[in-house]
Amino acid sequence: MPEDELSRSSHSNPGKSLVNGIKTNPASNSPKSSLSVPMGPPVYVDLAYIPNHCSGKNTDPEFFRRVRASYYVVSGNDAANGEPSRAVLDALLEGKSQWGENLQVTLIPTHDTEVTREWYQQTHEKQQELNIMVLASSSTVVMQDESFPACKIEF
Q1: How much is the pTM?
Q2: Does 37 reside within a domain?
Q3: Taking residues 94-118, what's their average pLDDT?
Q4: Tell me, what's the pLDDT at 139?
Q5: For residue 138, is it within any domain?
Q6: Residue 150: its pLDDT value, please?
Q7: How many CA atoms lie within 13 A of 49 on its CB side?
Q8: Number of structural domains in the chain
């Protein structure tokens, strides 16, 4: 290789490359870590909707470590598709246990499902330890010919 090409290549790529806009060192990164999102400070919000009807496809403990909400809405009423997912509800416990602060969290299920009932009963002590309250619906909304349970949230 001519000296000017060697000089150019060593300056243009000094052992690092960009992966998703982030400088990486290919020799030290595994393929999985090069695709992950870089760590940053957690985001605090009042209300967060758990993605994809609380399906395990997109939500894991990392979501709850990074998105710290006072209220999480758990929708999903399709047991055949795993909605809501027990794994996601467990991920909330795991993620919140790593916050390092005992902020009050309220979980708001939009449907009364077998999965949420079983999870609530089986993990109630852990929920209390982590300052997580599950809001049960005590009101009913009637719209047209349909009625359904509802919760009132005040900020």
Answers
A1: 0.66
A2: no
A3: 90
A4: 65
A5: yes
A6: 67
A7: 6
A8: 1
